[in-house]
Specification:
366 residues; alpha/beta; Nucleotidyltransferase, domain 5; 2 domains; 7-stranded mixed sheet; 12 helices; 34% helix; binds adenosine-5'-triphosphate; binds ligand AH0
Length: 366
């Protein structure tokens, strides 16, 4: 087991929006964050993205999954081998299917392969043991969010919102001693965030995203579709709770008859409303919501949120953090926690029965 004391760990995340791999160095002892280091990004090209997309919703054993895993491993090896100083790697992989109370959760990419290529220990498969112990296996960033709240000197409860393919919220109380302390964190997925609008732009216009939320800004949200969406039982379910990228495909189907701009406006407003519903589960109100993930670049989504929430809504850059790299940094931090035998999730972040340290460690040459 890793001894106490800070090390530079390299985290890597390939998120549900399928844009590419983010990587970032963090100096941490698995409790405190002492510094942030170099970052990098390796986009998937069109062919790679199409092959990963073809594996979504499939499980190990399917040829599409093997193909996706190879792409994920190669992209990570290319990106991570450019970093020098890491003593440990945290490799999330690419979620292809997530069904925690059914077939489980699967992130493509084998950490043992990466450990060989990189010549350093790799922590990976972060979600399976949480699911095996009755948890959702997601979200896992909350313990890192707690450490971030401490690092920025927060003393009152605040929330982090990640707007990736799916959205997730973490409420944290930084006055508690650690993320595993009772009452320190509450976390859950809010609903679809960028994934539906990306899928719309891809199918209607051959684009990857609604840059700046400009198309959505030029349309009118369909109130009936949003009301139907918000009637989904997911929003009333008590957290912790998590989602698969494709759990809300019905929303995308519902906007099919609308013109492009109205469809984009509807999907964007739905993402914002899902977050608002999420905040209703907070144990206490927060004064600020710090937004990370690519959706913070979507001005329409950010305006929709600010107009509907009683607190300050600001990108994490407002407190000196990097919203494009936060999740990669999270997996660097979590890797050190795994290596030190510290928990990475608990009953209030994933609904797991007890505190659990997810992840297996692969060493090179073994
Ligand atoms: N300038 C922009 N304007 C609008 N949307 C943007 C912009 N930049 C990024 N995005 C959105 O953010 C997405 C990428 O976000 P991010 O990298 O946080 O997602 P992810 O990490 O793949 O997802 P997850 O957190 O669900 O795993 C893009 O696919 C796009 O939808
Ligand atoms: C199963 C899975 O990969 N979930 C992702 C996804 O993307 C956002 C949201 O859904 C969150 O639950 C999670 O990722 C972040 C990094 C997390 O685990 O905190």
């Amino acid at each position: 087991m890793l001894k106490a004391g800070p090390i530079w760990a390299l985290g890597a995340m390939s998120g549900t929006s399928l844009d590419g791999v983010d990587a970032a160095l963090v100096l941490t002892d698995g409790e405190r964050i002492l510094d942030f280091g170099e970052t990098g990004y390796r986009p998937y090209d069109e062919e790679e993205r199409a092959l990963i997309r073809a594996a979504l919703g499939r499980w190990p054993g399917a040829p599409e999954v093997e193909m996706a895993a190879e792409i994920v491993e190669t992209a990570h090896a290319e990106l991570l081998s450019q970093f020098g100083a890491a003593a440990l790697v945290g490799f999330h992989g690419q979620t292809l299917a997530h069904d925690p109370r059914g077939r489980g959760t699967h992130q493509a990419g084998n950490g043992a392969v990466l450990a060989e290529v990189l010549g350093v220990p790799v922590v990976w498969d972060f979600r399976s043991s949480d699911v095996a112990l009755g948890g959702q296996g997601a979200p896992l960033a909350p313990f890192f969010h707690f450490a971030l709240a401490k690092r920025i000197g927060a003393t009152a409860p605040l929330a982090f919102l990640n707007l990736g393919g799916v959205g997730n919220l973490t409420w944290v109380d930084p006055s508690k001693p650690g993320p595993e302390s009772p009452g320190a964190c509450l976390a859950f997925d809010t609903g679809p965030a960028n994934a539906p609008v990306n899928d719309l732009l891809r199918s209607r216009r051959g684009l990857t995203q609604d840059t700046g939320g400009e198309l959505a800004a030029s349309g009118t949200p369909d109130a009936g579709i949003i009301a139907d969406f918000l009637a989904h039982p997911y929003f009333l379910r008590m957290p912790p709770k998590s989602l698969d990228r494709n759990d809300f495909n019905a929303l995308l189907a519902a906007v099919a008859p609308l013109p492009d701009a109205d469809a984009a406006a509807t999907l964007t407003r739905a993402a914002a409303e899902a977050v608002v519903r999420g905040t209703e589960h907070f144990p206490t109100p927060v004064e600020r919501l710090l937004v990370t993930g690519g959706g913070r670049h979507n001005a329409t989504l950010m305006t929709d949120l600010a107009a509907r929430l009683p607190c300050t809504v600001a990108p994490v850059e407002s407190v000196g953090l990097d919203g494009d790299m936060l999740e990669a940094q999270a997996f660097a931090y979590l890797a050190v926690r795994v290596a030190r035998g510290l928990p990475t999730s608990g009953p209030t972040t994933t609904g797991v029965m007890a505190l659990v340290g997810g992840g297996q460690i692969s060493h090179p040459g073994v």
